[in-house]
Structure formats: structure tokens, C-alpha cells
Amino acid sequence: MGCVTITLEYLQRSSLNIAITEMTRFHSKDSKIDANTCPFVRNNTTIIQYPGEFDWNEETQGLILSSYFWGYVINHLPGGLLAEKWGVKSVLGLSIFISSSATLTTPIVSRTFGSWGLICLRILVGLAQGPIYPSLTVLMSNWSSSNERGRLGAIIFTGAYLGNFLSMAISGLIISYLGWTGVFYIFGGIGIVWLIIWMTIYHNTPLEHPYIKEDERNHITTTSGKTCYKDLPPTPWIPILTSVPVWGLTISLVGHSWSVLTINTDLPKYLKNILHISVKANGIISGLPHIGMWFFSIFSGWLIDLMIVKFRWGTSLVRKLCITVASVGPAIGIIAASYSGCDKTLATVFFVFGMTMMGSYIPGSKAITLDNSTNYAGIVTALVGTIGAISGIVTPYLIGVLTPNSTLLEWRLVFWISFAVLLGSNTAFLFMGTASAQWWNDPDQVRNYFKGKKKIDKKDTS
Fold first, then answer.
1. N or C: which terminal CB in the chain sees fewer CB atoms within 10 Å?
2. Residues 11-65 pLDDT 10s
3. Three-state DSSP class for residue 343
4. 3-class DSSP state of 234
5. Could you report how far apart the first and last alpha carbons of the chain are, in Å?
6. Contact, 322 vs 360, CB < 8 A?
């Protein structure tokens, strides 16, 4: 249920990335011949123009693509708190409803209110989808035992990769037959259907599920390490906010998000404007890195559980190894792709290889969140994701500013920046991150913390 939900959310989230290449007109600002520009047609000019319904320049497109994350950042933490308090079923049900409705109305809003109308609508989609990751982390903390987190985390959260792949691959086909509006009508409609299924089938915890076997219910509840929300003391905000492992994971997510968003949000533009690939091929090629990430993430989730349970490798070592592979692989892949010039096949191979390696990030990072804290997993995920999602605000707009003419040299600079962010953030995580349970996850220690604080406050007052 978690996997399909996040797949759907990413279908709606990423649908604009391919559609915007057909919605807008593109023309180079620079009329000079650029030796680094890939040939489109064999003539003596490098001025290229694509037809489109909207005359939005690269900077405006960057604003539109980044606006989703404005809402996403705002609602990430409140969404995590609500998921802990109200339950995942209600929070994600509302998320699916708003996101699907906004997706269905995208063509009407774009044509009626232009770029600013679309920006406001994408902010609304971001607000609706802000609770996704913290809610699914709560789902995982309710339904997983400690030695299954790598596999179950991979199954749930790789729905994002699957959603990105399907969005890219299917969008190209839909647009080629139905036009760009068809993407939003189809993905929005699927969301409404899924909402009905979600509200009918999903249950928040094993204790609430009417059909689960008693031995399975007991196994999950006794091995998850989860304390009932009603029995938890107040949230220890200061210890969480000053936790070095939490900040290490946050920095790691910034690097991961930066790279993923560079590929997910702007790879379709690179393929069209630099390599001049058709919309059908664009969708398939843009989707290949995500299907590679999906397969590798599932494999990594199985492998790290095996390494920990059977071979007795240290949990922190295994988690850090996964996240390092997910940083070094993409860093090498995207740089190699940018130096493959106009060779479409070679560029595709490097993009797919690099981003496939990023698949090991999910079982590493999502499991380590629960390793640090099962009781406050939703809140920690929300805090980490809020800061990490800032990449989504910065990256699309920065790329629009850095690539006004969409030349190969401009895009190469974009990829070098991603290279530096990936390796720098991973280095910080290696020093700061750990898979050890943090003291503030223990309800008794948190109660003692608050008691001690009250005593100090009284002493200071007197």
C-alpha cells in the first residue's frame, strides 16, 4: 500500500517535467555558432525553435518547476506531526485527494491564469504531498520489525523511483497521442480511483487490522520497538534538533535530493534542448535511470539485511556503505555523461549507470532513521526532509539561470556542481551519521530529561 501510494504521488509530482517541454516554446538567446551545441539539422545556423502553447523562458520554467517544493517544505513537518497523531490513513487520504484534484485542473489553470496560476497550483500540490515521506516512515515504524527495515524500506520508498520511471515513460507516449493535457487528466483520474482503494483497505496499525493473523500481529508489535503514541512523553525538540546524527542525515539528504532533482526535473530539458531527442524517446530515456534505481534499491535492501543478520556486519558500517555508493556512483555517472558530448547512446548509458547506483540510498537512509528513533521517526523524517527539500527550491531555478542558452558547456557546469554537492554531503555524513538508537528515543530517558529541566527552571527562578 505504501509503495503504490508513493508511486502515484510521484506520477503526479513529476508529470510536469516532461509536459513542460511540450507546453512551452524554446529558442536560443544566442545567435552565435557554438561548437559545443549538438546539431539539430544540418545547416549553417544554431538557432532552434520548438512550437509550444506558452512563451515561458528558461528562468520562468525554473520557477514553475521549483514552486512545488515551496509548498512541500512548508507542510513537511506539520504533515509528520499529523501522521503521528491522526494516523497515516487520514493524512495520506487527504493528501491523495488534494494532489489528484490539483493535477486534474492543471490544464485549465495554466490556460486561464498563465505561469503564475500554474505556480500557485504547484505550490498546492507540494502542500498536499508534504506529509508523504514522514507519513510513510510512520507506516513503516508501525508495520516493520527491526531486522526487516532494509527490505521493507526499499519496497515502500522505491515507489518514488517507480513513479518517476512510469511518469517519464508514459508521459512521453501520452503526449505524443493525446497532447500535454492528457498527462494531467489521466494521472489525476488514477489518483481518485486509488483514493477509494486506500480508504477501504489500509489500516494504521496491526492492532487495528481486522484480518491479520494473531501470530503475525504479535511478532510485529513486539519487535518493532514502537511505543504507542498516547504513551509517549512530549516531543524532545531540543535534543532532536541538536542531534549530530540527525544533522548528518540531513546533509546527506541535501546532496541526494540535489542530484535526483537535477536528473528528475531537468533531464528531459537536457535531452530535448541539447541532444534534440523526440518526446517519445525523451520519456523513455528520462525514465530509465529511475527504473535502474528501483531495481538496485530492492536488491540493496535485501543485501543489507543479509549482511547485518547473517554475516553480522555492523549496522552503521552497512548503512554508510549504502549511502556512499549512492553518492559516488551518481557523481561519476553524470560527469561522464556530460563529457560524452552529442553521443546519445553513451550519454544514456552513463546517466543510467550513475543514477542506478543511487538506488542504495533508500534502504540505507530510511532504515537509519528508524535505527536512530522508531518513536519519533515521523518527526525526524519531517525535519530532515524539510531542510533536504530546499534543494528542490534551489536546483530547478539555479539550472534555469545557469542554462539560458541550453548549451552543452552550460549544462556541464550544472553537472559539476552536482558532483561537488554529492561528494561533499557524503563526506559530512560519514563523520556525523550513525545507526545507533539515540537516547531521546527512550520514553523513560525523555521523561527524566523533562523532569531535570523543570528542576533547573525552578532553581533558576528562585
1. C
2. 998 888 888 878 887 545 444 445 556 665 443 444 444 467 888 887 788 888 8
3. coil
4. coil
5. 55
6. yes
